[in-house]
Design brief:
heterodimer; A: alpha/beta; 2 domains; B: alpha/beta; FAD/NAD(P)-binding domain; 5-stranded parallel β-sheet
Chain lengths: 436, 482
C-alpha cells in the first residue's frame, strides 16, 4: 500500500485528509469521532470572540436528484468560548498525539492575535490557520474575507501573527477576489508557512418562489452565505493550480473545495496540494467517508506505481498553462459506437442547437437496424471533417464509452498562437481563413 | 344452487383496490429526473396518440404539473384512463431507450397518471377551448374511447357534435369493462364530463339500431362516426352454454359496477374460458371476490396466450390456476345450475387444435366465464347502414388515414374498425376520423402542433405514433423474422 502520510510545512500527519474548519470540527467529541473514523487531522472551527448564530443557517442546491450538489451557510465562527475550545484542543491532542490538530483563528487587534496564537501553541495545536476568508457576518466587522480581499491588510496581520508564532502558520484564502495569487503572495511575503484554499464563495442558493425569500430563511429575511460542496470543486482546482504554478508563492498548499471522494483528492494533489480539507461531504454523510478516500487513494497510487503522495503531487501543474500555449493544429473528432448507442439523439440536438451543427440524423439503412429497438429510427451520424472536436456530444451522451473523441492526424506540426503570430509576421504563412 | 356473494364489503374494497398506487410527488419528480429527454424520442413513436412524452415528463420534473397534463390531454383526451389501462410495457415504456441502457424504462404510465390526477383533483380544465362554430354537425355513435376521441377533436375544430350511446353513461369499455383494481369508473366518467364541457352533446340510453334512427342521423348531419366497438362474447357452442351460471366475462366485469361489491354473486369454483387480457381481468377479479378456485382454461399452450406477460404474472400472483391445452366439451348441471365442466386435452399441430380422443375429465365448477373474444357486430352494422362494406374479418372496411368507409359520410374507428385493440388505439382512431371528416368536408388537412421535443423533425422519416403507429412487440416480431 502506498504511503499516505504527509509532512505539511513541518506538520506531520498520518494521512492528508483533514476535517476542514466548520461545523464538523466544533468540539472535542467530533474530533475524537473523526480520528476514530480515520481522519488524519482536524482544523478546529474558527476560534475568536464568541458570536451569536441565527436559525436557520444552511441551504443547498439540489440538482436533478443529487442532494447538496452545492451547499451554503450563514453560520459564523465558533459560538463557544476560547477557553472551552483551547481546553478541548489540549484534551484531543493528549489522546491523539500523532494526529494533527490545527487551531483556526479569527480576531481583530495585534494584541488579540498574539494572545490567541500563544494560547493555540500552549494547547498543543500542531499549527494555526488564519481565517481570512469567511464571507459573511465577520467581514462586516472587519475580519474574515475583509482581510483576505485586501492583500496589504492580510500581509500586515500575517506579520503580527508571525511575531508570536512558534508553530506553523497557514493562511486560508478567500476565493471572493479577482486574483487569488495576489493574496497568496502577500502571505508569502509576510512569512507564512503555508496557504489553504479555497474558503467559501459568496452565494444565494435559491429563492423560495412562494415567499420570495431566499434560503436560508431567518424570520422573513435571508443573507448571502458561503458556497461550497461538489459544485465548487472546479473553481477550487483552478485557484489551487494558480497558486501552485506561481513561482512567487512557493508555499505548501492545503486544498479545499468540494472534495468528497479519493478521486477529488487525487486531483487536488496532482494540482499541487499536500493536505486536503473536507467539510461538506462530512456534513452530508458523516466522518465514515474517509474510509474509501484513504483506500481509494492508496489503490490509485499503487496502480500507478507511485509509492507516496509526493510522487503524485503537482504532476498536473505543468500540463496547464495559458491558452496561447495550446496547439492550433491539434484535431480530434467525435466517433459514435453504434453498438452502444441507445438512440436518445441528445448528441444530435446538442450539436444542432448548442454547438456547431455537425451531427445529422440519417436513415439507418446503411448501418443495419440502427440504435434502439424501434425500426426506422434515424441514427445520429457525425459529419467528419466538419466536426470541430468540441466535446459537447460526448458530454451529453448518457452511455459511457459511446462517443469518443478520437485524435485525427492532420499531418501538420504543432503551432501555438505565438508561433502563428510569428509566422504571419514573417510572411511564412497566410492567415487561417475564418470559419464559414 | 345459484351462486352467492362470498365476501363482506370491507374485504371487497381491500381486494379490489387499485393495484398500482399513485406516485407521491417525490417519486414522480425522482422518476421524471431519470428521463433523458430524448430528441425525437421512440416513446412518442410507440404511443398511438403521439403524446409528446419527453415534454410532459420534463414539465413534471420542473413542477409544472398543469402544463404536463395539458401536453398529455391535448394529444389524448383520455390520457387519465390510458395512464391506467395502457399496456405501457408494450408501448411507450417498451420503446424507452433506457431499456437498452439499464433495463429499467421510465415509468411513463404512472407519471402520466400523476399529471392527469393533479388537474382532475384540482378541477383544472386543460383541454383547449372548442373552436369557433363552423356550422357543421356530426353524429357520433358510441360513447366509448373511439367516439370520445372523435368528439373531442371535432369540438376543437368547431363542429356541433352529438354522441349517442345505448348505455346510461358514457366511457364505453373504460367505464364498464376494465378491472376495478386497474381503474375505477369515476376516472372514465370524469373524462366524459370534460368532453361535455367542450360543448359536445350526449344522448344516453338511445339505441340508434332501431327503426330508421341511423338513416335519420345520416340525413341530419354532415357526417357520422361509427364507434360501436364489439358485441358480446363469442359462443362456445357446447351443450349447457345457456345455463344461468355461464356468463360473458365482460358482463361479469360490468356487473361489478351494478351493485355493491359484497352483493356480487361469484362462484366458489370459477372457470374462465380463454386466455386473453379480458380472461385475466375476469379470473383475477373472481379470485379477489372470494372464489376459492379460479381457473383459466385455454385450448392452446402457454406460449400462445394473447394475455400480456404482466397480466399473466398478476393472475398467477393472485392464485389463479391455468389449464393449458384444455378445451371445454360440456357444461354439466344439476337442478338447472352449473356444477361441473367436462374438459378434454388438446393437441396443437401446425396451428390447428385437435381434441385428444378419450382424454375427457370432469372438473367441478359453479360459474363459467366466457372470454373467447367478442363478436363482430356485423348484423348491427348492416342494420344501421345498409351497404357499408365489411372486410373478411368482419371489420368495417375503411381508409387507414382518414378512417372513411365506402359510404362517404360514414367514418369508423375503434374496435369496429380494428377488430379489437387497446383503448389508446381507439382514441387515436377516433381522433384520426375527426381529422378525416374535417378534410372530407373542408378539404383542409389538420396538422398536430409541432412538439418541442421534436421541433424541426422531417415528417416522413420519423413521425409520432399517431402518424405512424408502432407497437413494439409487433415490431420485435417483425424484426425476429427479418
Amino acid at each position: 500500500m502506498a504511503d499516505l502520510s504527509i509532512d505539511f510545512a513541518g506538520i506531520r500527519s498520518p494521512n492528508p485528509f483533514w476535517v476542514a474548519s466548520g461545523p464538523p470540527s466544533n468540539t472535542a467529541y467530533q474530533a475524537h469521532r473523526a480520528f476514530e473514523a480515520g481522519w488524519g487531522g482536524v482544523v478546529w472551527k474558527t476560534i475568536g470572540e464568541p458570536i451569536v448564530n441565527v436559525a436557520s443557517r444552511y441551504s443547498a442546491l439540489h440538482l436533478a436528484g443529487m442532494r447538496m450538489a452545492g451547499f451554503n451557510n450563514i453560520e459564523l465562527i465558533s459560538d463557544r468560548s476560547p477557553e472551552t475550545n483551547f481546553r478541548e484542543i489540549a484534551e484531543v491532542k493528549r489522546r491523539w498525539p500523532k494526529h494533527t490538530v490545527i487551531a483556526s483563528l479569527m480576531v481583530d487587534t495585534r494584541e488579540r492575535w498574539h494572545e490567541f496564537v500563544k494560547r493555540s501553541a500552549d494547547a498543543g495545536a500542531d499549527g494555526i490557520e488564519l481565517n481570512f476568508g469567511c464571507p459573511h457576518g465577520m467581514c462586516e466587522r472587519g475580519m474574515g474575507s475583509a482581510v483576505g480581499q485586501n492583500p496589504d491588510v492580510a500581509e500586515t496581520i500575517v506579520g503580527w501573527v508571525m511575531e508570536a508564532a512558534t508553530i506553523p502558520v497557514i493562511v486560508k484564502l478567500t476565493p471572493n477576489i479577482t486574483n487569488v495569487v495576489f493574496a497568496a503572495r502577500a502571505a508569502k511575503r509576510a512569512g507564512a508557512d503555508a496557504i489553504s484554499l479555497i474558503n467559501t464563495i459568496n452565494s444565494i442558493t435559491n429563492v423560495n418562489l412562494d415567499t420570495l425569500v431566499p434560503e436560508p430563511f431567518v424570520a422573513g429575511r435571508s443573507s448571502h452565505g458561503g458556497y461550497c460542496g461538489p459544485a465548487v470543486k472546479p473553481i477550487a482546482l483552478n485557484m489551487v493550480h494558480a497558486c501552485a504554478g506561481d513561482p512567487e508563492v512557493g508555499l505548501p498548499i492545503s486544498g479545499i473545495g468540494g472534495i468528497a471522494t479519493w478521486r477529488d483528492a487525487a486531483e487536488f494533489v496532482a494540482l499541487g496540494s499536500t493536505s486536503l480539507q473536507v467539510c461538506t461531504a462530512i456534513m452530508h454523510h458523516g466522518f465514515r467517508i474517509v474510509d474509501d478516500m484513504k483506500d481509494g487513494l492508496s489503490a490509485y497510487l499503487d496502480s500507478k506505481g507511485m509509492r507516496s503522495l509526493a510522487d503524485l503531487r503537482g504532476r498536473a501543474v505543468p500540463h496547464v498553462g495559458d491558452w496561447q500555449q495550446l496547439d492550433l493544429h491539434y484535431k480530434r473528432e467525435a466517433r459514435i459506437d453504434y453498438e452502444k448507442c441507445i438512440g436518445c439523439n441528445l448528441c444530435h440536438i446538442a450539436c444542432e442547437d448548442g454547438a456547431h451543427q455537425c451531427i445529422d440524423l440519417v436513415d439507418p439503412a446503411p448501418y443495419g437496424l440502427g440504435p434502439g429497438r424501434v425500426p426506422g429510427k434515424p441514427v445520429p451520424k457525425v459529419r467528419e471533417g466538419d466536426c470541430v472536436g468540441c466535446n459537447l456530444c460526448s458530454l451529453v451522451c448518457p452511455v459511457d464509452g459511446c462517443i469518443t473523441m478520437t485524435p485525427v492526424d492532420t499531418g501538420r506540426a504543432a503551432m501555438t498562437w505565438h508561433d502563428y503570430q510569428s509566422r504571419l509576421a514573417s510572411g511564412a504563412m497566410q492567415p487561417i481563413p475564418p470559419h464559414p | 344452487m345459484p351462486i352467492q356473494p362470498l365476501i363482506d364489503a370491507a374485504t371487497a374494497e381491500t381486494n379490489l383496490a387499485e393495484v398500482k398506487r399513485p406516485f407521491t410527488p417525490q417519486e414522480a419528480t425522482t422518476e421524471a429526473d431519470r428521463c433523458l429527454f430524448c430528441y425525437d424520442a421512440p416513446c412518442i413513436k410507440a404511443c398511438p396518440t403521439g403524446i409528446d412524452i419527453p415534454t410532459f415528463i420534463r414539465r413534471i420534473a420542473t413542477g409544472n404539473l398543469v402544463g404536463a397534463a395539458r401536453t398529455i390531454l391535448e394529444a389524448n383526451v383520455l390520457g387519465a384512463s390510458c395512464a391506467r389501462v395502457c399496456p405501457t410495457q408494450m408501448l411507450c415504456e417498451g420503446a424507452c431507450v433506457l431499456v437498452d441502457l439499464e433495463h429499467q424504462p421510465i415509468r411513463i404510465g404512472r407519471l402520466q397518471r400523476h399529471a392527469t390526477d393533479h388537474v382532475a383533483a384540482l378541477g383544472i380544465d386543460v383541454l383547449p377551448a372548442p373552436g369557433e362554430p363552423n356550422g357543421r354537425r356530426v353524429a357520433v355513435i358510441g360513447a366509448g374511447p373511439a367516439g370520445l376521441g372523435c368528439a373531442a377533436e371535432l369540438a376543437r375544430l368547431g363542429y356541433a357534435v352529438t354522441v349517442y350511446d345505448k348505455k346510461p353513461v358514457g366511457g364505453g369499455l373504460n367505464t364498464y369493462g376494465i378491472a376495478l383494481y386497474k381503474m375505477r369508473p369515476e376516472v372514465s366518467l370524469d373524462e366524459v364530463q370534460a368532453i361535455a364541457r367542450l360543448g359536445v352533446a350526449f344522448r344516453f340510453g338511445v339505441d340508434v339500431g332501431v327503426g330508421d334512427e341511423a338513416a335519420q342521423l345520416l340525413r341530419d348531419h354532415d357526417a357520422v362516426f361509427l364507434g360501436i366497438g364489439l358485441g358480446g362474447a363469442n359462443r362456445l357452442d357446447i351443450p349447457g352454454e345457456d345455463l344461468p351460471e355461464v356468463v360473458d366475462a365482460l358482463d361479469f366485469i360490468e356487473g361489478l359496477r351494478a351493485r355493491p361489491l359484497d352483493e356480487v354473486p361469484v362462484g366458489r369454483r370459477v372457470a374462465v374460458i380463454g386466455c386473453g387480457n379480458t380472461a385475466i381481468d375476469a379470473v383475477t377479479q373472481a379470485k379477489r371476490l372470494g372464489a376459492e378456485e379460479a381457473t383459466i382454461i385455454y385450448r392452446r399452450g402457454e406460449q400462445e396466450m394473447s394475455a400480456y406477460p404482466f397480466e399473466y404474472e398478476l393472475a398467477k400472483a393472485d392464485g389463479a390456476t391455468f389449464l393449458f391445452n384444455t378445451v371445454p366439451i360440456e357444461v354439466i348441471s344439476n337442478d338447472g345450475h352449473v356444477v361441473a365442466l367436462t374438459l378434454a386435452t388438446t393437441d396443437v399441430r401446425d396451428g390447428r387444435v385437435r381434441v385428444v380422443p378419450g382424454s375427457e375429465w370432469t372438473q367441478p365448477c359453479d360459474l363459467v366465464l366466457k372470454a373467447v373474444g367478442q363478436e363482430k357486430q356485423i348484423g348491427l352494422v348492416e342494420r344501421l347502414f345498409p351497404g357499408l362494406a365489411i372486410d373478411a374479418k368482419g371489420r368495417v372496411a375503411h381508409d387507414p388515414v382518414s378512417m372513411q368507409t365506402n359510404l362517404p359520410k360514414v367514418f369508423v374507428g375503434g374496435d369496429a374498425a380494428s377488430g379489437g385493440r387497446e383503448v389508446v388505439n381507439a382514441v387515436a382512431e377516433g381522433k384520426k376520423a375527426a381529422r378525416g371528416i374535417h378534410a372530407s368536408l373542408t378539404g383542409e388537412q389538420v396538422r398536430g402542433p409541432v412538439q418541442p421535443s421534436r421541433l424541426g423533425m422531417p415528417d416522413g422519416a420519423t413521425g409520432s405514433g399517431f402518424d405512424h403507429p408502432i407497437r413494439v412487440h409487433e415490431l420485435e416480431a417483425a424484426l425476429k423474422q427479418g
